[in-house]
UniProtKB/TrEMBL annotation:
<feature type="transmembrane region" description="Helical">
    <location>
        <begin position="274"/>
        <end position="295"/>
    </location>
</feature>
<feature type="transmembrane region" description="Helical">
    <location>
        <begin position="101"/>
        <end position="121"/>
    </location>
</feature>
<dbReference type="InterPro" id="IPR050879">
    <property type="entry name" value="Acyltransferase_3"/>
</dbReference>
<dbReference type="GO" id="GO:0009103">
    <property type="term" value="P:lipopolysaccharide biosynthetic process"/>
</dbReference>
<dbReference type="GO" id="GO:0016747">
    <property type="term" value="F:acyltransferase activity, transferring groups other than amino-acyl groups"/>
</dbReference>
<feature type="transmembrane region" description="Helical">
    <location>
        <begin position="337"/>
        <end position="359"/>
    </location>
</feature>
<feature type="transmembrane region" description="Helical">
    <location>
        <begin position="307"/>
        <end position="331"/>
    </location>
</feature>
<keyword id="KW-0472">Membrane</keyword>
<feature type="domain" description="Acyltransferase 3">
    <location>
        <begin position="19"/>
        <end position="359"/>
    </location>
</feature>
<protein>
    <recommendedName>
        <fullName>Acyltransferase 3 domain-containing protein</fullName>
    </recommendedName>
</protein>
<dbReference type="Pfam" id="PF01757">
    <property type="entry name" value="Acyl_transf_3"/>
</dbReference>
<keyword id="KW-1133">Transmembrane helix</keyword>
<dbReference type="GO" id="GO:0016020">
    <property type="term" value="C:membrane"/>
</dbReference>
<feature type="transmembrane region" description="Helical">
    <location>
        <begin position="141"/>
        <end position="162"/>
    </location>
</feature>
<feature type="transmembrane region" description="Helical">
    <location>
        <begin position="24"/>
        <end position="47"/>
    </location>
</feature>
<dbReference type="InterPro" id="IPR002656">
    <property type="entry name" value="Acyl_transf_3_dom"/>
</dbReference>
<feature type="region of interest" description="Disordered">
    <location>
        <begin position="378"/>
        <end position="403"/>
    </location>
</feature>
Amino acid sequence: MAHPSPATESATPRLDVLPALDGLRAVAAGLVVLTHAAFLTGFGTSAGLPGHLLARGDFGVAIFFALSGFLLHRGLTAHAHGSGVDLLGYAARRFARIVPAYWVALAAVVIAADPGLRAWFLTGLGLHIYVPDVNIPSFGQSWSVATEVSFYIALPFVVLLLNRLRRRGAARPLVALVVLALITSLLPVFTGPAEFGVELLVERWLPWRAPHFLVGMIFAEALLVPDHPISRALSRLARDPVGCLALAGAAYLASTTPVAGSLTLEPAHGATLLMRTGLSTVVAACVLLPLTLGSPSWWSHVLSHPIVRWVGVVSFGLFLWHLPVFTALYAVSGAQFFRGGLAPLLAIGVPISLLLAFLSHQFVELPSSRLAARLTAHRRQRREGHHSDDREAKRPLEERSTE
């Protein structure tokens, strides 16, 4: 990585590789896997506090969103300061990173379950979260991919607006993001009585999930203005990983109580959704903060362990494949849903899901990402009129934690 000059260092995001973030992806994926296993077996609502803790593992999605907010905002802001992350390259990498693996997993589900052309088409385009009554049960987790893609589309425009603010003061984008996070966190108040249908879909749309992305963006922006009071306050918190994780744990525990609504698929609304969104945002922020604004600690060392990082590297495939695998195991075994069997479901389903995730990473995600990197590197070379090296195209995806 090229080190910024003293003149630009304070205005350029720190784009060093953060291996612990791969480990945090593993934590997020693990939570999602556990919550789906708890739901399918009925463990989440029948096993007291342990079940309730697993049932709220959907907070792993909030962690994924916060990671995306930090990494992608950091990368695009670096482009704005001339460090070489162009917008077309960003779009190509995002497409290559997400869409091929998503389509492969969806194709397998469609072949096995035959959900119908309408559901296949809308889910394939990520439009199913905007249309009621479109659901492929064994691919239900795909809603968050659609939400993530909507963030990918919105982010460049947000960065352009923030850069206009930056010309009037280096700290203005940070303040604007904090204000935006506070405003969007209040959106659940305007979500009326919920039924399975439009109201359930609304809470999956980007504006309602924006606080999760925005906390990551705030951390990335705080790196640019370390002397701002908000940045200093965040840095003080980040230097205490035990305190951060204790706060995350308290928020997570609170989310298992009625204050955050049902532990089933029953949609939340109003004050209940407000509490659930707020608590999930606190959890995501507190587990991410020490890794981005803090110093190396036991928390970052644990998440940087090679095994944990490996799970994080293949976490997108694990996220895509675990629910189809769980559903297939029920179909093959003849077992009934909601009748127990958490341990065997995890013991058999997780290794199979990890194997499929590894295959997806090796034969779908890596080749498509490398192709996108080569194409964007070639485009950059043609634009610059000389042959710069293409190390970015050759560098393995798992070594890149800047986007």
